[in-house]
Amino acid sequence: MPKTPCYFHGKTIVITGAASGIGRATAQIFAREGANVVCADINDAENKRTAEMVEQLGVNALAVPTDVTSREAVNHMVALALLRFNRIDFLFNSAGAAGRRSKFLDIDDDLWEKTYALNVNGTLYAIQAVLPHFLNHGKGVIVNMASMSYRRGGPGASIHYASAKAAVWSLTLGVAREFADRGIRCLSISPGPVRTPFQAASNTPPELIEKFIADVPMKRWCEPEEVGELVLFVCSDAAEYMTADTIYINGGGGWR
Hints:
Blueprint: E1 12-16, H1 21-32, E2 36-41, H2 44-55, E3 61-65, H3 71-85, E4 90-93, H4 109-137, E5 140-145, H5 149-152, H6 159-179, E6 184-191, H7 198-201, H8 206-214, H9 224-235, E7 246-249
Parallel strand pairs: 1-2, 1-4, 2-3, 4-5, 5-6, 6-7
Helix pairs in contact: 1-2, 1-9, 3-4, 4-6
């Protein structure tokens, strides 16, 4: 939580992947703390639903249908956010997915390119769109969604995804260190297994899901809200000396 009461009141966060899971949970948590929320997602209907949830908590929201794999779409979304709220204080790059599970020799060009387009390019485009604005104000926080998978490598199911998340981790480190002396903080979050639509969308087999939980000493899924609370903390003025790191939230999981 922030050191300063009402720290988030009137501030604005942009959240990609806001239509479900961690993105939606984080949008509601920031709204609870009084922040304006820009919801960006390719799923227009559910993205609008997230914005409605935010507004029900008494703050302002803007829903922008956004394909983060398109630089033009991301730039347009950020421009609309600035037009509506005049300022952006935080960026949470939550959009990401494995596409589908695949053994290494079955990874084709289409799966590899789509995985990098969503997880890496989408993160890059949003950072580049928001960063000049942050630099003008001398302050801003960027939080990227990495994964525990980059530490393990994703053998047998998701090397493509683990590789992309390793790129997100490296991107985070580089941006953080390049702009640390100009008031910009950049961090990533690396969760273990989280209870989101991600697993169903990537066709995760039941036996792999059982293995995920078996590797977690707490023997349960992480909930999206638990990740969202961590995003809130690292964006707050209680974490002003934190940058460049990835923060693990994994129930004691050993994917290291």
